[in-house]
Amino acid sequence: MSTAFELENGIFAGVDVGSLGTKSVVLRGNEVAGKVIIPSRLNSEEGGQEALDLALEDAGLVRSDADFIVSTGYGRISATYANKTVTEITCHAKGANFLHPNVRTIVDIGGQDCKAIRIDKNGAVVDFAMNDKCAAGTGRFLEVMANVFKVPLSELGDLSLRATQAIPMSSTCTVFVESEVISLLARGEDPANIIAGIHHAIANRVGGLFARVGIESEVFFSGGVAKNIGMKKAIEKALKVTVVQPVFDPQLTGALGAAALARAFAAKEAQARLASA
Amino acid sequence: MQNPLDTLRKIRQAVENRPAELETLKAAGAKVVGWINYNVPEELILALDLIPVRLGRGGDDHLVEHGSRWISTKNCVYVREIVGLFAENEDPYVRAADLVAVDATCLQVFRTGEVIRHYFGKEVAILGVPRNFHTPEGAQYFRHELKHFAGKLEEFSGRKLTEEKLAASIALLRGIRSTLDEIYTWQAADNALITWEETLDVVQAGHFLDRTAYLELLHELVAELQEKQATDEIHDRFEEVRIFVSGSIIPPGDRKIIGILRSLGARIVGDDLWSGLAPQLNVDVKAPTVDAIADAYLARVPHGALPYLDLETDQRLANLKKLLHRFHAHAVVYHTLRYCDPYTFKGNETKQVLQAEGFPFLELHTEYAGSDYEAVRTRAEAFVELVRNRNLIEA
C-alpha cells in the first residue's frame, strides 16, 4: 500500500473480541463494506478469526484481501491474525469519532465493563475511567436480571419504559440485587418499576465514572447495552445529557474504530516507506 | 538482561544474608524493633543501639486471606497481609521483631498494631500522630508523643538516649536519605544503567539491612554509577513513555502494576510513594534532640492520610509537582489499593491539580489478587496509548 488510491480502496478490518460478543467490521477505503456479530467463543482466537472471515464474506472478500487488521477487546492478546492490537478504549473513541465527529464524550457499556471516555476532535482519548472488577453496571448484570424476570434481554429496555416510578436499588452488587429483586417481586412490586430501578442503578454507576472524567457536549452511547432504550433514557436522565441517535449498530463501534485505526496505521506505514524510498 | 552494576548484586546478596545475620545478632543479645507505617523515627531506635527493621510486605493473596480472619476485609490488602504475616509467623523479620513500633498516621495500620498485640501477643509501642501538623497544638502534641515513645524505647533497650548517639544516628540517616535521593536522579537519567524498579528494590533493601553497612553500599553504588554511566542529565525523550507512580503503598513483594507498566513498554522514572522516595525527602533534623526530630518529621512530605489541606498549602501536591518536573515525567499513574481510603479519596483532587499542569493522570484501583489483572492491564495499555499519542504530537 503506497498510494492515495490504494488507501482509498484498501481493505481494513477491525475485530473486537468481547466477553459476550465477537464483532468485526470491514472498511473498503473509508466506507463500511462488511460487518458481523457472533457470540464469543471459549477460544477467543478462533472466535476472532471466525468473525473476521464472516465480515470479509459479508463484503464479498476473503482473508488475503485484507490489507491491515487491528484487533481489540479482551481477546486482543491472542489475535495472531491481526497486524496490530489496540485497546477497546482507543477503538471505541475512534469508532465514535468516525460516526459522530462532533461528539467528545462516550459511554460504553459492554458485557463485562463500562467506560466513560472523553476524546478530542481527532478521536484521540483525552481521559477515561472504567468500572472496577464487578459485574454491576455491565451487560452481564442486565443479562442476569433478564433471567430473573424470565424475559428476553432485548425486551428489558421496553419494559422499563412502562414504569410509573423507578424503585431504588439499595445494593450495587449483581448477586445481592438479584436477591433484592426477588424480594421486591414477592412484595408485589410492579416488575416494570423494578426494571426501571435497575436501569437507574446502572446509570448512576456510569454517572460515578463521569464524575472522574467530566462530560462535554452530546454523549455517544456505544456497546451492546446501547441497544437498550431504557438504558439510554436512564443515562440521559442521570447524566442530564442528550444521547446522540445511533446511525450504526452501537455494538459494532469498537470493531469499527479498530478498522478505522487499521486504515490509519496502513497510511502511516505507507508514508514511512515512501520517506525511506 | 543482567544489570551490569556489581553493587546491585552485592545489595541483593546482603538482603539474602540478612535473616541469618539477625539471628546471630539476636543470639548475642541484640534487640530488634520492627516498625510499621510512616512516622516512626529510626533515629531513636538506632541511637539506643536497637536494630530497626521496617516490617510489611505485599503481593501475596494467600497472606491477605489469612490476615482477613483477624481484621475486617474492609481494610486494604497491605494491612491484611501484615496481619497475615504475623498470623503465619514465618517471615524472618516478623519473627525477629522483639518490639513492634507503629505510628498512627494511617489509621488502618494503627489498628493493625492493636490487632498484632491482641491476637499474637507481640509487644507493641504506639506513636500518636496529630491529624493537623500545622497548628502549634499539633506540633506540641507530637513532641509529647515522641518523648513518651522515646521513653518506651529507652525502657525496652535498658539504655538512655544521649546527644552523642542521637547526633550519630541523625547523621547516618541523613546520609542514607540524601544518597537515595541522588540514586533517584541517576535512574531517571538518559540511558540510565539502573532502572526505577531496581532503585525501589535498593530503597526497600534499606528496610532490612544494617544501616551503616547499607549507607556504605549506597555510596559504592553511586561511585559505580559515576564511573560507568555517561551522564546523570535528564531530558524529555518523547520516544519514551515516562511514567511517574504515585498513590498507595507499593511494598516489597508487590510488583503487580509495575510489571504491567513495564510489559507495555512504559518507563517508570519516579515516585512519591511512602515505600519509595517520599520518606527520603525534606527531613532536616536541626539538633540532636527528640524535639528536633519531632519537628523535622512534621515538616517533611506528609503521608496521604495526613493532613487534608487546601490546595495552596498541601506539601504533598507541591512535592509531587516538583518531582514530575525533576524527573521529566510525561504522565502519572496513581495506584490505589482497594479500601485505601486516604489515597483513593485524594485521587480526584490530585488528578485535577495535575491535569491543570498538563499531566495525563490514570488511577489504577486494584488489590493483590490476579483476577483483575487483564482489566488493569487494559486501563494501563489505553493510558500508554494516550501518552504515546500525545508524545508524537509533542515530538
What does this structure look like?
The complex is a heterodimer of chains A (277) and B (395). Chain A has 9 helices and 9 strands. By secondary structure, chain A is α/β, with parallel strands linked by helices. Chain A folds into 2 domains: 114 residues, ATPase, nucleotide binding domain (Nucleotidyltransferase, domain 5, 2-Layer Sandwich); 144 residues, ATPase, nucleotide binding domain (Nucleotidyltransferase, domain 5, 2-Layer Sandwich), CATH 3.30.420. A 5-stranded mixed β-sheet of chain A has the order 3-2-1-4-5. In chain A, strands 8-7-6-9 form a 4-stranded mixed β-sheet. Chain A is elongated. Chain A starts with a helix and ends with a helix. The relative contact order of chain A is 0.19. The model of chain A has no long low-confidence stretch (mean pLDDT 90). Chain B has 2 domains: 157 residues, Rossmann fold, CATH 3.40.50; 229 residues, Rossmann fold (3-Layer(aba) Sandwich). In chain B, 53% of the residues lie in helices and 11% in strands. Chain B has 15 helices and 8 strands. In chain B, the strands form 2 sheets. In chain B, strands 2-1-3-4 form a 4-stranded parallel β-sheet, sandwiched between helices. In chain B, α6 links the parallel β3 and β4. The chains are: A alpha/beta (277), B alpha/beta (395). Chains A and B meet through α3 and β8 of A and α14, β8 and α15 of B.
